[in-house]
């Protein structure tokens, strides 16, 4: 597999507080990678920096040769929170905006995803439950044809049965050459999909390991992740 994303010496501070320090990470094409860490570890910040949303960082980010924020945005799809739209905006209006802004947005693909998610295009954002809103964000994200998908806690408000169906369909939605970086608390739910696991702890990438290597040592992904906090719990 070819190298897709390279992060070198990334450090990010906000309000004089260090959020990320000396982060180094390489991701290859065609992978599904879990980004794991406790709340406040910096997972969302790392994704926002990769996506070109959070700026004023130190270090280098290279996404298939794209190093500038605007260049990277064209090569990735990020699950933002639809914060730029008013509550009165209808789903179909959001879709038209995406189709206008993103040249790689496939309206036919979105329509298939919308039906799968059981979303009514006439519904306003104010009418959507948290779970429905997250389903819409996932559909918008995967309707773009990009090299990298960044899914930041995408399933928090979705019920268990619907979550399982969506997770099982992720492989079908993504191109085989694309990579998904997914941050989520449902480690067991997504573990069967994973090719690699990245652990964020103590403001940096502490571990980056093949999921097969973890499984070969007779550990589940969740047990492997929890082992990084066992010593702390015993103190």
Automatic annotation (TrEMBL):
Residues 5-227 form the ABC transporter domain. Keywords: ATP-binding, Nucleotide-binding. SMART domains: AAA. One of its GO terms (molecular function) is ATP binding. InterPro entries: AAA+_ATPase, ABC_transporter-like_ATP-bd, P-loop_NTPase. The keyword Methyltransferase does not apply. The keyword ATP-binding applies. Transmembrane segments: none annotated. This is ABC transporter, ATP-binding protein.
């Amino acid at each position: 597999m070819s190298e897709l994303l390279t992060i070198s010496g990334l450090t990010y501070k906000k309000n004089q507080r260090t959020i990320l320090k000396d982060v180094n990470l390489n991701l290859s094409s065609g992978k599904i990678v879990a980004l794991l860490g406790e709340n406040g570890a910096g997972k969302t910040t790392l994704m926002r920096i990769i996506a070109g949303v959070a700026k004023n960082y130190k270090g280098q980010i290279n996404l298939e040769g794209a190093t500038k924020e605007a260049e990277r945005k064209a090569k990735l799809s990020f699950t933002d929170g639809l914060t730029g739209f008013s509550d009165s905006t209808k789903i179909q209006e959001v879709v038209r905006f995406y189709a206008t802004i993103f040249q790689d947005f496939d309206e036919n693909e979105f329509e298939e995803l919308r039906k799968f998610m059981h979303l009514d295009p006439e519904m306003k954002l104010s009418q959507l439950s948290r779970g429905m809103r997250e389903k819409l964000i996932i559909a918008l994200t995967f309707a773009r044809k990009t090299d990298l998908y960044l899914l930041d806690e995408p399933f928090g408000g979705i019920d268990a049965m619907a979550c399982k169906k969506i997770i099982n369909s992720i492989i079908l939605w993504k191109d085989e050459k694309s990579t998904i970086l997914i941050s989520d608390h449902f480690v067991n739910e997504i573990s069967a999909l994973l090719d690699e696991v990245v652990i964020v702890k103590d403001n940096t990438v502490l571990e980056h390991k093949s999921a097969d290597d973890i499984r070969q040592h007779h550990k589940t992904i969740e047990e492997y992740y929890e082992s990084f906090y066992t010593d702390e719990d015993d103190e």
